Every structure is written in C-alpha cells, then in structure tokens.
Amino acid sequence: MTPTPSEDKPVEPERSLREKWREYRKPGYYEELDYAWTMTIDLDRCMGCEACMVACKAENNLPIVGEQAFARGREMQWIRIERYWEGQYPDIKLRFIPVMCQQCEAAPCETVCPVTATYHNQDGLNVQVYNRCIGTRSCAVYCPYEVRYFNYNDHHWDQPLEQQLNPDVTVREKGVMEKCTFCIQRIRLAKDHAKDDGRRRVRDGEMVPACVQACPAEAMVFGDRKDAASRVSASLKDARAYRVLDELNTRPSVIYLKKVTG
Amino acid sequence: MERAANMNERDLSYADVNRDIVRSLVETGPKYYITLGCAVGLTVVCFLFPWFYQLQLGIAAAGMNHPQVWGTYEAGFIFWIGLSHSGTLLSCVLHITRSSWRKAMYRSAEAMTLFSLVVAVIMVMVHVGRPWFIHWAFPYPNQMELWPNFRSPLLFDVTAIATYLTGSSVFIYMGSIPDFAAVRDRTTGWRHHMYTLLSLGWRGTDTEWHRLGWAYTLLAVLIIPLAVSVHSIVSWDWASSIVPALHQTIFAPYFVVGAIYSGTAGIVTVMFLLRKYMGFERYITEVHFDNLGKLLLALSLIWTYINVLELFTGWYSGDSPEIEALKYKLFGYYAPLYWEMILFCAFAPLLLISKRFRVSFVPMLILSIAINIGMYTERFLIVGTSLSRKYLPDAWGVYVPSLVELSILVGTIALFSTLFLLFVKIFPSVSIYEVKETLAEAAAEVPERDTGAAGGDRWQPAR
After folding, report:
1. Which helix (H) or strand (E) holds B162?
2. Mutation choice for B interface testing from A79, A101, A137 by most B CBs within 10 A
3. For residue A160, what is the enclosing H or E element?
4. Which of B115, B286, B346, B458 could lock B359 by a disulfide, CB 3.0 to 4.6 Å apart?
C-alpha cells in the first residue's frame, strides 16, 4: 500500500529565514574538536636537564645555527628551558620552566597572520603551514610566550649529518616562521594507526611528543583532555595546575604544575 | 586673498605663470641631471644591492633577532606611510575649505603622498621573509583555494593602502589634466605627444571645467576619511596585539596625528627645495611657510599631548609588564633615542610660536628635517622598546640595526628623491590653472589691473 503523498507527508510549517539560519548555524559547532591535545609539565620534577630540547632538535629537524647566529639571538629551539634565579647568595634558588608553543585556544598569532599560515586545526592544535608563510613575523610579535622562531637564513647540515634528518618533517626555508607543533607528525601517524586498527580514536599514551618521550624525570604528561580517563586529565585536577600568563586569556593547552617549596 | 595680493605685487601675469611652469618642465640644467644621477646611483648602491643581498641570504642580513623580529623595516614602513599622510589629506582639506594658499603647493604635496606610499609598499616587500609570495596577501582566487585571513590587521593594511594609493593617484592625476593640456599646447616633439595622451583630450570647455570641479571636490571629500582610516589601520598592526606598550587604544589617533605631523614637516622640506632649486620663488612664498608653520605647531602640541597621555595610561594601569615597558622606554637601552625624539618633536617645534621663525626659510628647513628624524625615531622606538620587553623576562633582548638596514634606510630616501625628481619633470609641480584662479580672484578685487589672458589663454576659473 503506497501512501499518497498528499495525505501522509506532513505539511512543512512555514519557517522564517531567521529560523532556518539558526538551525543551520549551530552555536559553537566550530569549537567542537576531535581531540584536545594537552600537556602538563610538573615543575617539581623538572631539573632543567634540557633533554627535551635535544630530543626536539632531533625530531623536528631543527638546525644548529652556529656560534655567530646564536650570539645574535637567532637560535632555533622550539622548546627552551627558562631559568629564573631567586634570592641573593648564599640563599639562592634556581627555578626552571620549559617553555614551548602553548597551543593557545585563543591564540593571538592566529588572528594576525594575513595569509592564514597559522590556524587552529581540528585537534585543537595551533598549526603552522610553512609553505603558506610569507614571513611578516607578526605572529612572533603577537605571541606573548616568545615561542615562534624565524628562519633568518637557509640552514644546511654538514655531511653526514643530513642523514639524520627526520623524513616525516619538512626542512624549512629561509623567511619562514616555525614553532612547536606538539610533534604533529607523530599525532598524524597515531591517528592513521588507529584508523587502520578500526579504532575511532587514539589511545591514551599511544603517542607522545619527542620532549615528553625524552624527559628522564617524567615531568611532562601528554594526552587528550577530552578523554576523562587519560593521564593528562588526571594531572589537570592537581591543585598546583596553572597556566603561564593566564591573565592574557589566551587559554593555553600547556598546563604547568607549580613547584612547591616547603 | 593675502596670497593673491602678494602675487600681484610681484607682477605675475597668466603668461608668466605658463612660462615659469612650462620652463620647469622643459628646461633641464646640468644641476638637475647631476642630482638625478646621484639619486639614482644612491638608490642602486644603497637600496637595490643590499636588498638583492638580503633576498639571497634571507633576513639574516638585517640585525633582527629573536624577541626583536620587527626592526627598522617595519619602522620605515610606518614612517613612509606617515609621510604620505599630509600631502593628499592637506590638499583635500584645504580644497574643500577653499584656502587659496593651497594652490601653489598642493601638487607637490600630493606627489609626496604618492611616492611615499610607493616607498612604503616597497618597504613591506623588504620587510617580509618571502616577498616573492607577497601576492598571497591579496584576496584573489588562487591555486591554494584560500582566502587571506580577513581577521588580520595586516590584511586591513593591504586593503587600506591599496585604496589610498588608488585614491591619491586618481586625485593627483585628475587635478593635473588641465595643466597637462596647458603644457601640451606649449610644447613640441615627444613631450607634445606625451602630454596629448596625458591630457585626455582636454579642451577647456565650460562643461569640462564644471565636471572636473565636481569630480575633484567629490574625490577630495572621499579621500579625507580614507586618509584618517589608513593610518588608524596601520596602527592596529601594533595596537591589536597584546604586547605591553603596543596594546593601546590611543594608537589610532596617535598615529594619525603623528602621520600628519611628519607629513606636514615633509611638505615644508619639499617646498623649500622646490622653491630654491626649481625657481618657484614667486609662487611658494613666506605665506606658505607661515601657514604650514602654524599647522606644524598645532600638530606638535597634539602629538606631545598624546605622547604624555600614552605614558600616563601605561603608568596608571599599574600592570607590571606595562610599567616595565614604560621604564625601559624612558630609561632603558634606547632611552637616548627617546629623549632625542622628545627634543626634536616636542620641544624644538615650540620655536614656531615666533612668526619670524616661521617665515625664515632655512630654519624652517632644519626644523622640518629634525621633526622627521624625530618621527622616524618614534616609529623605531615603538617597535624597539616594546619588543625588547615583552612578558617573559627570559626572552628579553635588544636589537641593533645592521649595516644593510641602515643602507636600505638611506636607499629609500634616495628612491623617494628619484621618484620625485622624475615627477617634477613630468607633472607641472605647481598647479598652473589654480594659480591663475588666484590671480583672477585678485584681479577682481583690484579692477584697474590688466588681467587679460595673455598668450591666447583659454584658462578660466572653474568655480
């Protein structure tokens, strides 16, 4: 029995353009991310060994700029250990804080790039597209954390050092801005593996960025904030958790656990 | 009317005006060629070579470093945009307020606008890391299927500057059409052909004058808000960041005033040089310097006020990064430059209170150059001091410009001079018909004078 269309099809109520628009434009749909990659860094554990810096250099094909360029303040280090001295000799304390791109949710660098070379991706990461960058360097000016590094010139690797370059990561040209990516190549790989295994999501701890992997004190924890069972979600509940320059409202995805001195 | 009366006193007839101004186009002495040669040479040696070197090497050729990613190039860009501000804006404002003293100077002021803008655009090319991709900042359908980022103040810049450049070139060209026709009628050879093309078949009929008058006034009215918006937008490049001492709501008016200030000083410099070397003593007179001096004085006071206010709001916020940036500005590494700027831009212009100073040409020239040095310093300091002291003390640092940067700074001045020197030989740098209007107005007041259109002129006042 085929129903006659005129009887059984409900008559669509007249909807105003405004209603249609509201339906179409689901508020906040663009904020729903697949993942929310987050890192916590326990400053109580950090001893400033700089293993993360070395690991990052190796993983991400960061150039060794040489003595001269270093002296001119052109070193390339996506993660750096900032050192802050407290007190006067002999009662003196040294504090370390590893600083890398904070992957801000409201990143100032993203708004200013005229060519959209830096934008927010579906994983909640602040990504940098090297090929699109024209090198206005305004993102570095806008970044309050000073974690964007500019390629002042082309870099080269002496033989046989070029053999150790990571094939998963581009070597950047002169005139291009770059920064920490949370090792996006590893994230991509993990997502691919998850897909191959018929899983929808990457498991907690399946991948970690190079710095996290290298940290001997296990001060850094990396994971998905959306997954309530992940290690990083647990460490976020720590009472010591804070964000650097929180008052600027950039909403960083890197959360530090305060060093407690007693 | 004071101005017109002056002209009559010096027995200027229509024929004199034609002769003087056409002469400035066709008679070229060795002095001009030497100057042009120097300017072109300097442009090549100080601008093109270093830029080429920088393109080869990368921005490493400049002195910029990690916290200080913007340097003299960005400062130079703002400076040239600023210098462009007075020309067309002043010309428009004076046109719609019908100030007759504008007439002898507006053409070269507008040319200054145009060429400063050109140099500013070139500065952007010098500034960016990969200038060969600069077209990606334009909204055009490209192979990446990607629009530029419309949220970016830098993109607003591209739009604003492109509009301003278009507006001011149309404005200067349209205002010159009757003059091109006048020159066309008095020249021979290739010049005649060139001016025939440039004058677009202008015959000087009533309808043509009427339309020109309308279009010119309309464009003038349109350009005034544009000029204000351009520099406001340029200031947002900095003000919309969250960097201490850059994140200031006062920046838009501050930049507009600063721009008009340095632009007016630039006009004084150009006026002096035109008067001295192009033989326009009878057209550019003390009246112009007096009026421009008054304007400069007013602008310097506003500029100083905003400057003090900027310090005050920084201090009043009580925000520790803001206070640090403030202290650094006043007493830090770049402090000598800061106090130099205050001396040149806030104190020195107070001399303009005296009329004797305003009408003496050489002191005015020196002052106008000093103001522009101060204004360049201001732009440099805004970048220099703010980026040296951002939030994290670990990333604090200083920056000193490299030789390449300094050379390019000199080179851009040479480039500007080259463009201007070419301009004075193509465009009548003093408006023929508007100067004649002034004469006619004066003649109406002094009827006994013979003001017959000498030399078979058809030039009648438009309005």
Report:
1. helix B153-184
2. A137
3. none
4. B286
